Amino acid sequence: MNLFRLLGDMTHLLSIVVLLLKIRTVKSCAGISLKTQELYVIVFLTRYLDLFTKYYSVYNTAMKLVFLGTSIGIVWYMRYHKVVKQTYSKDEDTFKHYFLILLSIILALLIHRAFDVIEVLWTFSLYLEAVAILPQLVLLQKSRNIDTLTGDYVFLLGAYRALYILNWVYRFLMENHKFRWIPWISGLVQTALYADFFYYYIKSWKNREKLKLPA
């Protein structure tokens, strides 16, 4: 465990806290993409299969259970909570996310470390996580009116991935950790997708303006 990994995990956890705060306190999921949240459930379900086969530490197990449990809980709130589900922006959340699932499956079958079920599903989860934010970003571009908690949530998600890249660089340079190009490239693609959002988020924060994305 190094500082970048810890900060990455805490930033990821904070993003979930912000989203749950919006859903539980405000009783609203306006501006949140259900499709992105469903993709994250698939990501965590396929990545954390090693919960049943390997033990690393109490911290590792606890964080996996938290991310998996909260992602399922968020989807439940958005789909079934009698108040929250009425605030879902269904007409704006139109990205065809099943194409992302199909593309990630094909890539995982073609490009992987080892051809067995656990490894292929782990690779699939990396590819899918890299693009899972796309429905959310498209929804925000359509809505143009982004509340503070939603903007903070997306920013923290992007910051988590950027910190994880720094964690990999640190481990490669300081811990002789071998280069694993699949997670590195997936992480870089994922971070790059946030670049435009980062620019407008920081700009709005600096100018104390409401966050708006160009169409």
UniProtKB/TrEMBL annotation:
GO molecular function: ER retention sequence binding
Membrane topology reported for the UniProt record: Multi-pass membrane protein
GO cellular component: endoplasmic reticulum membrane
Record-level GO BP terms: protein retention in ER lumen; protein transport; vesicle-mediated transport
Subcellular location, record wording: Endoplasmic reticulum membrane
Pfam families hit by this protein: ER_lumen_recept (PF00810)
Membrane-spanning ranges: 55-77, 98-115, 121-140, 152-170, 182-202
Keywords per UniProt: Endoplasmic reticulum, ER-Golgi transport, Membrane, Protein transport, Receptor, Transmembrane, Transmembrane helix, Transport
Family to which the UniProt record says this protein belongs: Belongs to the ERD2 family.
Protein name per its UniProtKB record: ER lumen protein-retaining receptor
Species whose genome carries this gene: Carpinus fangiana
